[in-house]
# Entry
Amino acid sequence: MSIKGGVHQDLIHDSAAKHVSGRAEYTDDILEPVGTLHAYLGFSTVAHGRITSIDLSAVRAAPGVVEVITADDLPGENDVSANGMHDEPLFATDEVLFWGQPLFAVVAETRDAARRAAALAEVSYDTLPHATDIAASRAAGAPLVTPPLTLKRGAVKPAMAAAPHRIKGQMEIGGQDHFYLEGQLSLAIPGEDEDVRIFCSTQHPTEVQHVVAHALGVPAHSVTVTVRRMGGGFGGKETQMNAFAVIAAVAAKRLNRPVKLRLDRDDDMSSTGKRHDFLAEYEVGFDDEGRILAVDGDFFARCGFCSDLSGPVTDRALFHADNAYFYPDVELRSHPLMTHTVSNTAFRGFGGPQGLIVAERIVEEIAYHLGRDALEVRRANFYGPGRDLTPYHQQVTDNIMAEVVDELVATSNYAARRQAVLDWNAKGGIIRKGIALTPVKFGISFTATWFNQAGALVHVYSDGSIQVNHGGTEMGQGLHTKVAQVVAEAFQVDIDRVKITATTTDKVPNTSATAASSGTDLNGMAALNACEAIKARLAAWAADKAGLPAEAVVFGTEGVSVGDKVTDWAKFIGAAYMDRVQLSATGFYKTPEIHWNRDTGQGRPFYYFAYGASVSEVSVDTLTGEYRVERTDILHDVGKSLNPAIDLGQVEGAFVQGMGWLTTEELWWDDKGRLRTHAPSTYKIPVASDIPREFNVKLASWSENREPTIKRSKAVGEPPFMLAVSVLEALNMAVASLDGYANCPKLDTPATPERVLMACEALRSAPAPAKVLEIGE
Amino acid sequence: MAHRTRLTFLLNDREIALDAVGASDTLLDFLRLDRRLTGTKEGCAEGDCGACTVLVGRLGPQGLVYESVNACIRFLASVDRCHVVTIEHLRGADGGLHPVQQAMVDFHGAQCGFCTPGIVMSLYALWMATPKPSTADVETALQGNLCRCTGYAPIIRAAQNWGGGQSADPLAAERDSVIASLTAMGSDRVELAKNGERVILPASADDLAEVLVAEPKATVIAGATDVGLWVTKHLRPISPAVFIGHLNDLKGIEEVDGALRIGAGVTYTEAEGAILVRWPHLAAYWNRIGGWQVRNAGTIGGNVANGSPIGDTPPVLIALDARVVLRKGTTRRSLPLQEYFIAYGKQDRAPGEFVERIDIPLPAAGQVHAAYKISKRRDEDISTVAMGIRLTLDDGKITKARIVLGGMAGVPKRASTVEAALIGQPLTEDALVAAAARLGEDVQPLSDWRGSAEYRMIVARNLLRRFALEQTGTLEEVGA
Ligand SMILES: Cc1cc2nc3c(=O)[nH]c(=O)nc-3n(C[C@H](O)[C@H](O)[C@H](O)COP(=O)(O)OP(=O)(O)OC[C@H]3O[C@@H](n4cnc5c(N)ncnc54)[C@H](O)[C@@H]3O)c2cc1C
Ligand code: FES
Ligand code: FES
# Structure
């Protein structure tokens, strides 16, 4: 017999029944205290300019308005930057740096009144030249928002010069809005002394606590931040909620009334950071077999007006610019460019996808150049024995890339299907097909080493019920379910006995963001450590009472056995309580072995790697650029899964989100520097009919983490996002068929129907190719 | 005329009566803020994400029909005499989870759960009508629901594995009492007010005509899938608001004098059967207008009256030589639909006048049709380019041509030069390609976030070629 809901079981999400019945409480659903007011923001309407005058009298006079708050009214510093750079004003005062930058807040009796009032501000500007994209920013010689990084191994110049083949190329990679279904919001409730309680949809309660404390000029102990669940985060609530929490808190303390701030979707999308767009310029040297000899790359990123997380995001792009491939001699440089746009931020993969996709494009370019199946080129370049050092000098010791790819090639019937695609295209029709297999290797750990710590608090109540709290936040990824499984397993009780409560800074302090896929790795371990502490106390007590060694106490499915006497869990706990055993413990965990020196570009930033691969087949209408993903097969490594059902869901969801990034999700700024795709009417994330017509997703059930992570599992949040690159390269192939695969069409992203059609047109109008290669012979 | 000054409707299992209702009050705010029914979520407030999906049951020409709609852009006043059903009302016959909810749990259809109530409501509407849906059915039901977490696959699995029990469903069990309650609410004109805003729900089309003569500046609101956004996104005042979506005498669909007459209040969903049986070429096109919720609420009359150059019905209706019938008081006039669109933002509609119906001449021998919609995303997206085509052939030669473009100019635009070039030609790829080359003489599209001018032009030309390939049977079919 085993317990219900232990580890390695397919368990439903702990909130599933509440989700489907509308009873799961999100921040906007919390019963508002009597007297709650509502704040809204006034936003800039130029991309770059000096404010020459700002007249808020109409705002103040509007019906229902209670207060208007400007930078002058802030008790602490006008800054919400979390990284200590002091470069992110809450309200622009003199210079406006992007369209949609907050200028002031208005507080009113209702949200509608606040929103209507905010629109009445009269602001005039001296407009200044703006640069919203990478090209304009480079042309204008824009500054970097944060120090760049160089990764370097060997001597790239001589290696490049000596290479039998060289290709230079560039790739434009679009950004992405998070489009969490629940927008940004905060509710602040003032308390006695300097206290304020904040309910906020955030992945990083501790950071909200710090930023609010900073803005109020009070110690962190006065601010409590709570989040039960988010309606999606994806990185968009790692730092971006800070400003909204601060405004709610400042207004609440000023007026001594609860204040809620919830943005309209359009304002949310116009004023919060997104995935960084990149422009990569690369040169690769390789031999006749397609083996890479040298890679030289520059990665320019649209960072927006301030640094936010752009430093670690652009670093991670470089960390993944090798993907699964060994670069014997390599130099990679990041260029985190300032632009007059929202400050770009964390988003699932955190720069990794933008690095990885360039590695994949490099491989594709080599394949087209040599007239080979790109899969052969990929295999020829995988890390392997003696070829296992990354550009950041970490040795890849847990490599299972080849195994994953071999299995997927077989199960997806790749070879035969590729031949069928080639045969189809050879008929020369309007509809063209493409197929591509792309691998993923993704490094797990925060590169800011100190973030790799977590705390938990476990209470066993005298009736045997268990309450668990930890520093991680629930945004749909099933973190709470997995941690509850770990706890149930530790005590050998059914999971129904375990309740996970809202994440809150007064239960577990000094937490890290739930980010970098690390939620379960860190918090699961911390919770386990707390359980072990309680178990040790219980065992010592029970053994002592029975006059037996502590090893005689076993926590089993039938109850706790002491020697040959088995006691039901609840009775056992009741007795322990009566005997005054402490039934509550904190747990702590820090990831071992990792270290990273950014100055030398060397270290072991990642505890381990997660692997996966996908094959996608597409068909493209070469008259309109419209396309369909006909089939996708995925094999993904999550180590020894804590909960295969939840992990599978993460893989499927991440893939589709990745597809959206690479296909229909387009951020489009007009010539005035205003984002025009700022709502779901104009910004198109995938809908149900966009997903692959046939979608086969499997976990590599044989995999176990070689490192002693929680139950030998691996992180799952981010890595599968990048599996979607197979869709892009399949589209690329379909287009390439128009001139017999003689050229790599180099589709930039997002590969909207327009980009696909324009790539088709470019090939059709290009001069006939000198040689038509039969690829995949 | 006798009228009521109280809004009355059913909300789940309660009868609601409200005396103070403003023109711009939305159903979603009423549910969440006034009733604290917080299961219905706001994700966008513009009808595009489906998090706010509820069912609205109404006594229409077909009796009591429940449809999924977006509560965020649905005006509260428009649910007079309706049964509003929210996620809180959903339950299984045994009081536990409903089979749709149970399947969503069992198949891990929710991750963050924020989209979930809306998805459950869309699926519930599907479940009632289609107990064993195909993948395509599920995708259609979910066109208007965004989920950022799951990738939809588990939701589709849930819908294909849910339990039955339709006849024991609470809504089925309550049906007679709901009909009785709604009927008892009476169909008089309703006039409401709040904070200086005024609302009128006329009792009939004739009453509407009277109201509009008296209130020529009023905002006419049918499905509110355009007007809703004026309020939620642009904070525009719309009072006095005259609602017409409930008027069954604007919901007629009938054949008269060789034309199909479609009342201005007929929604896309209601028109679908009658249109597709006569013009099957519109099937795929129709399915791509909005999402399911939008098609349940949005009307053809509203699409035409709105006058937008990116509305999807004008290009295909003008290609079919449709006419619009406008009415003011008791005076009616009929004009070719194309003439209704004068210029960008300007239509041939006088104050006090309203669109009463659209007349579409029935198909005739020798006609070949096509309709195309190109957009960034296949479902629930606005057209980058839309095209309606009707050619008449005699003895293998094109004798008449109607080619109408959407998204390419300030109004739905006929490609007259291309049409002229086709007269006398055979329907071949060469003829279409040659004529398409002259498209630049008819339209000079703009660049925007939906597509560049160049892309629009290339696509429009290529669509004419595609049309020829389809007609001559030389286009390969792929995919599922
Ligand atoms: C999410 C979403 C997706 C959409 N997708 C599409 C799409 O794919 N294609 C497309 O074409 N449109 C789309 N629309 C726009 C909209 O749905 C259509 O234009 C719809 O047909 C409008 O009809 P309605 O009944 O909702 O009009 P309403 O919003 O009620 O009214 C629209 C306008 O018409 C006027 N009006 C309505 N009825 C009459 C009448 N009888 N006489 C005089 N004036 C009248 C109103 O005063 C108003 O000016 C979409 C909208 C949303 C919210
Ligand atoms: S809230 Fe998004 S459709 Fe209504
Ligand atoms: S479950 Fe999160 S948006 Fe659907």
About this structure: Chain A touches chain B through 90 residues (CB under 8 Å). The longest helix of chain A spans residues 519-546. The first strand of chain A starts at residue 37 and ends at 43.
